[in-house]
Amino acid sequence: MFADRAKIIIRSGKGGDGHVSFRREKFVPDGGPDGGDGGRGGDVIFEVDNNTNTLMAYRHHRKFSASDGENGKKKRQHGADGESIVLKVPEGTVVKLAKTGEVIADLSGRNRRQVILQGGRGGNGNMHYATSTMQAPVYAQPGQEARELEVTLELKLIADVGLIGYPNVGKSTLLSRISNASPKIANYHFTTLEPNLGVVDLGDEQGFVVADIPGLIEGASQGAGLGHEFLRHIERCKVLVHVVDAASVEGRDPVEDIYRIDEELAAYNVSLEKKPQIIAANKCDALPVSQAEETGPGNGCPEDPVGRIRGEFEPKGVSVYAISAATGQGIKELLYAVWQLLQTVPGETEVFAQEYFPEEHIPGNNLPFQVWKDEEDAHVFHVEGPKVEKMLGYTNLDSEKGFRFFQNFLKDTGILKDLRDLGIEDGDTVRMYGLQFEYYE
User: Fold this and answer.
1) For 308-331, how does the pLDDT look when each residue is reduced to its tens digit (9 = 90+)?
2) What's the Cα-to-Cα distance from 269 to each of 59, 97, 215, 222, 259, rounded to whole Å?
């Protein structure tokens, strides 16, 4: 079964917590802190697998998690890093944030592998927090929390040419004649309920990939029928071949059909309307003999249905080829015209730009500091953040001048205000990366 869409939940690994311990050996009565660091959590990685062309693996299994990092250990032992999880997807898969539809990654072209969620950073053990004034720190840094996202996976086929048109105009028959594909074919609407790919070989290393896009209907751009399910597969095609029923076997007007389908393409994505097109006027074998004889290249007889299509669209720069997918009439000329048109368009696969960057949305990642009250002791408050850690790294708190400078930093950044807002009182304890202070106004 073909599956081109799935919604899943991905979770990176939590970073391991740093360890609090002290060196205890015979004849070393005052051993220092030796708590090791926690291991890094595993990443969530998406990777292209050339051996699959469907997202079926993600239809029945919804949650995928990387492993957590191991906690640090005594004797300065580093916890093991968590194992990353690699999710295999077919080329052309777009990973989007489920809530907003923003693109996180497009596994197409040269982008074969991408880390979507990074694992949490491991926490530092207490061996990092020993100072001249605190030689036995009882603090270790907790590991960074795991990240979890709900994402949608959308497969947008990568094909050079897309066959488009109303249902039952002969797209599948044409694909079966020009390529190695074997689509299901029958004389009723919506025979094709999933896209089919075929490779056209013109010899002399000339060829291209064709996608038979299931028949579109009016309102497809608003999701009518299976509109959105089909339209996404047209987005990467470099050239569109618009197949129409020139003989009006079902009483449809081929000119009106072309205009209506073009309107649906533009309504879904305005760039689709601008893609190079060729019109394949199909079912010419069903035309009356007198009209069928007039369908050769260049004929513009207004009484001829194919001539009418040419008269309408060739002045607009769209070539029209009279064909019969059933008998093979005109197909060779059509294929070489498609090949020539392909040589005029960029050869690179269209890759959708990233719109959502998960690392920018890690809670607290963009904040200069975080202040919170200890869950177990209401008289203990914690302060952390990249600016705080950096300040502690180059400030000599043992000197009166350095300590006063650090106090001004706490005031200027708003940390003292946040501590007051949390209800801190004189005599309460403030902990910052292993350092411990008593608070006084």
Assistant:
1) 999 999 999 999 999 998 899 999
2) 27, 20, 17, 11, 15
